[in-house]
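Here is a typical protein record:
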Amino acid sequence: MRNFLSLCALFLFSSLALAQSAPPIPPDAQSAMRELRKEPFRAHMAFLADDLLEGRGTGRRGHEIAARYVGAQFEGLGLKPAGQDGTYYQRVPFREITVDPEKCAISVTENGSTSELKWGEDFIMRGSEVYPDVSLEAPLVFVGYGVRTPDGRYDDYASVDVKGKIVVVFSGAPPSLPSELQAHLSSSREKLRSARGHGAVGLISLWRPKDEKSLPWQRVVIGFGFPAMRWLGPDGMPSDAFPELKVTALLSTSASEKLFQHASKPWAQVLRDAEASKPQSFSLPASVSVREVAHHETITSPNVIAVLPGSDPKLSPEYVVYSAHVDHLGIGQPINGDSIYNGAVDDASGTAALLVIAKAFTALPHPPARSVMFIGFTAEEKGLLGSDYFAHFPTVPIHNIVADINMDGAAVFYAFNDIIALGAADSTLDTVVRRNAARLGLKVTPDPEPEQHFFVRADQYSFVRQGVPSVFINDGEEAKDPKVNGKKFAEEWVATRYHAPSDDMNQPLDFDAAVEFMQLDFLVGYDVALDPERPKWKPGDFFGENFGRK
């Protein structure tokens, strides 16, 4: 007991020291923060996650209802419409891609013997965004993670020719790389771009034992049962299309291992070298015949956009963006008899926070100097598509957007002592986040799970790729209650509720934690909206160098 009391005293002292080292919260902000209450947060979240909205699937009736709800809330707050044609909505055109498992096929030929792989057991596909029905036969070349760092110090393609071949890659990126560079290189877009650049004609991804531990294969199969999408440009072409790569597929752990049974390097060694961040590439003694079939349909779905105009004539043309995604997965394969993927935490909670924070900004005695934009994105679950479309076709000049604060899941599980601010370290937003975390007695800790690549799996990444400094704040793994193991809680939640029907309002939720989460996000955006200096990329930062405005 004495040790426990000593720890409590130490934490209290540390929290007070953090808070005392930061400047006080301005009176106007304190007044507005009274609106950051758990009751409206819970009400918004419960409505958006209700079964009646059928999981808010992109392009489906439930998401349209959710989008109208968010637009109505914006209008009720007196925010100005910032969508198309004087409305709160930006309609995004999509190509919906529904794979046909019965017609898809993969066969592997090795030493004159051919074996057929089974859909769902051995492989799955999304369907090509370009070709409704495509077939390909080609040899296989393993290229590790299939990545090359900008400085060339790590290059899986350095010693192999993949022209006219199908590359076989691990998901992820070398774990020795910095967290956010690792996340960037791990994205499907970058892997496909690299494969195309080296002359490959297809790409097969491998599901490793560590991937299986994080998310069971059967859950992945269920996820691939939902349609894929790409947004369509003015020319009718789908976004991030790589027509030179005819086919893509994902193999299960067992099927992946079989590809290496006669390879020059055994499967176990390949896995070890991947974990050790060793570049590796070699031809596999096999070729594959692949057929990928899907149905294409054109649909639309809305982003919802509103603005609180700024008060400073010079700074009001600039915008601080708050974002969350309104969509989820919709109705899918039943799990334990439930087929509605409600998406309560992911991301009805983030959208609820968006609405409550918008209310707080409208309660300020005076609007901040810069304008504040609130966006509820569509099609995040399809690959950040709504945010990527907006970033390519913004309703205000993209160079006038100074920062994005994204909320993909509010903190609703347990009271927390620390936060993880993905993206903050790349820009001067780092200082803003740390200052306001200190105001609330919170610590800022590094990403504890860089291998999950959360930085490229949420909508702020679409802004980063257009040169906009951005941050995605999450609660950390250190709970205020010493009985709560934050890391274990997160792992169990992903394994049992992430992208499952059980992510609903019936799970244990802590709405007091959500209030503190909203307080921090509000303060960060409030500071940026008042600061005469816009956020800047740090010198030499990878994202600033590659995407920042010159």
